Amino acid sequence: MARVSVIDPQTATGEIRQLLDAVQAGLGTVPNFIRVLANSPAALSAFLGLHSIAGAGALNAQTRERIALAVAEQNACQYCVSAHTAIGRKAGLDNQEMIANRTGRSSDAKAEAALTFARALVEHTGQVSKAEFDAVRAAGHSDAEIIEIITHVAMNIFTNLLGKSTQVEIDFPTIELNMAA
Question: Does domain 61-166 have CATH number 3.30.300.20?
Fold first, then answer.
């Protein structure tokens, strides 16, 4: 049970109703995570704005989902691992790839470099080494993509913190965390 109210889109009013209706129109559902975030119209609006902008960048949907899975697993957020497994499947990732992504691995070398960099950002709270930075660039990531990797890591840390702290109920097929987490 979530530690804060889970806002019902059917009874929401005003700005919250508009934001939740937009999520419903875009996703076909309003996940519990968004319903919890809806306790603050400012927080929900900020998250949706950042999420929208980050989704329009140079990184493809599969790489964005790979990063979300790696960060969620690293931060032991079961809600986010479960959610991004479902979303990753819709983005075209198969189960084996997503299991690998959760450990920072990928069958795609450029994607794996992004995951290695993402995990280093989390592990070192942003204080990545020159070698780690150079490695992601050497794998073919542009400056724009590197900035977007950082953006997606930050956004996913936020969602991990929100999911774990509020203990939001998982409303996706539940995925168990790896034992190492």
Answer: no
